[in-house]
Design a protein that fits this description.
This protein is mainly beta. The N terminus is likely disordered. 5% of the residues lie in helices and 46% in strands.
């Protein structure tokens, strides 16, 4: 029996190191007898999926791919993103689960963006409306913490805006509060399948009065290594300002992200909220936000009662008139917080109104900067802490703001600005964030920077810190911006320690 159990542990370690998709806890981890905690090992394989960026012939897209340096040195490995098979853009086809009339093989199997070593970003550009979704894998030393940012600029037209998204890992379950089926909105769910067999997905919509019934949102086929956009207004005849989208898969796995466009405030990507939880943190509301709307949803059988607090530079305050939030089960709730930051960057903290009754919820913010016909929109979903390590790629010499929030105890993080994509040396700075506050800083810039660079945030000590990066690239008087949250990148997994005493398992 002893040798069999050891073989199982060895297999578990190998699986964790190769896949990077799961964490394993050691038996008796951190128990009262002082058993050693599970070891953490770097993953050796990571997957990322980038949605099709094309919005108009005027769209200009930059991909920035990056893996944090291991021990400060570039490491060998392969990290590539290749074009997927193009799927149809006809909404009636995609909503009905058809692969589309215009499906075609990508022109080549050549990588659209390829990263050769860690510690220095690699970039690539695309233009026009027909740029495909990308499917990618990183292996070996380039897998831990692999991050790719897709940044698209559209200067004019209904789709105008600065659209940024951190390319996502495939999964089977996603929540998107802050979507909409209103006539002024055009929201697409982009589903991308990284695998060699078809995936089948379901899309559920929930409005202020509950489920928006639809048969065409069920059983949507996403062909192998392809991407399918679904216009959500075709899934329901009900027009609702605030909608929560729930994407699940029956078979296979997908990457899912929402492209939201408003005829007045422009467009940006909405990424999935953190998993349903009783306490949520939404970091990185810009100081000059002119309108902030909170959208929340309780997916369980119970209503949720929450306290709402804005964590600013000097502490926490309750938004006047919105100190409490009641969310009915399976009904989307939207609250207009207007310009709650009033010139001071902040983050939103949602906690149970009763500490002994924590009802799981998901949430996101719709944030607007500017006024009149010079407005721009971005979205901030609830997110987890930076944990061991989190990274935001595609930072420029000017225009980046890093927001750090400590919702509980004071925390200290180390921020590394990588070498530039075309030159420059990395630099490091440490920040301490007082408990219950948000610290918004202009992040360090690499010495002698040429090109773009990445920011990596690592927890040093104290309580958990949540982070978001804002990239602002104003154009034609419009304050174009996008916000990316920085949850733990999952670059390491827990595996059992082989040196545990297993003599008790002897026959």
């Amino acid at each position: 029996m002893k040798s069999t159990y050891l073989s199982l542990i060895a297999g578990t370690v190998a699986l964790a190191a190769v896949t990077g998709f799961a964490a394993f806890a050691a038996p008796g981890d951190a128990d009262a007898d002082g058993a050693k905690a599970a070891a953490r090992l770097p993953v050796e394989r990571s997957s990322l999926l980038c949605p099709a960026p094309g919005l108009s012939e005027l769209a200009e897209t930059t991909y920035t791919s990056f893996t944090p340096a291991a021990g400060g040195s570039g490491a060998a490995g392969i990290a590539e993103l290749k074009p997927s098979v193009s799927a149809a853009t006809d909404a009636s086809d995609t909503a009905a689960g058809k692969s589309g009339k215009k499906s075609k093989k990508a022109d080549s199997d050549k990588p659209a963006v390829s990263l050769k070593k860690s510690g220095k970003p690699a970039t690539a550009d695309a233009s026009g409306s027909d740029a495909p979704a990308l499917v990618g894998t990183a292996t070996g030393a380039l897998a831990p913490g692999w991050t790719t940012q897709q940044t698209t600029t559209v200067g004019v037209g209904a789709s105008r805006g600065l659209l940024g998204v951190s390319c996502t890992a495939p999964d089977t379950d996603f929540w998107f509060p802050a979507a909409s089926t209103a006539k002024s909105r055009e929201d697409y769910v982009h589903l991308t399948n990284p695998d060699d067999t078809a995936a089948v997905a379901d899309i559920e919509l929930y409005g202020p009065d509950g489920s928006l019934k639809s048969d065409v949102g069920e059983g949507i086929t996403v062909p192998a290594r392809s991407s399918v956009p679904v216009l959500i207004s075709t899934l329901s005849s009900t027009a609702a300002d605030d909608v929560t989208i729930h994407v699940t898969t029956r078979t296979g796995r997908v990457g899912a992200v929402v492209r939201a466009a408003d005829e007045k405030t422009g467009s940006d990507w909405l990424t999935a909220s953190a998993d349903p939880a009783g306490t949520l943190v939404l970091p990185g509301i810009p100081a000059d936000a002119t309108d902030v709307r909170l959208v929340a949803f309780a997916p369980g059988e119970d209503d949720a009662d929450l306290k709402v607090k804005l964590l600013g530079k000097n502490g926490a305050i309750s938004p006047a008139g919105h100190e409490d939030l009641h969310i009915k089960s399976n009904m989307t709730t939207g609250v207009d917080l207007k310009n709650l930051t009033r010139g001071e960057a902040g983050s939103l903290l949602l906690t149970p109104a009763q500490s002994d009754r924590a009802t799981p919820v998901v949430a996101a913010l719709r944030v607007v900067r500017g006024t009149g016909d010079k407005q721009e929109v971005a979205f901030i979903p609830a997110t987890g802490p930076v944990g061991a390590q989190a990274t935001a790629a595609d930072n420029r010499a000017k225009g980046s703001t890093l927001s750090l929030t400590a919702p509980g105890a004071t925390g200290t993080v180390k921020v590394t600005a990588s070498a530039g994509s075309e030159g420059g040396a990395q630099t490091v700075k440490t920040y301490t964030v007082k408990g219950g506050t948000t610290l918004a800083v202009t992040p360090p810039v690499p010495d002698g920077l040429k090109g773009s660079y990445a920011l990596t945030v690592e927890t040093e000590s104290g309580g958990p810190v949540h982070a978001a990066r804002t990239l602002a690239l104003p154009e034609n008087g419009i304050p174009m911006f996008t916000v990316q949250t920085l949850p733990d990148d999952g670059g390491t997994v827990e595996v059992p320690r082989a040196e545990q005493d297993l003599s008790v398992l002897d026959d």
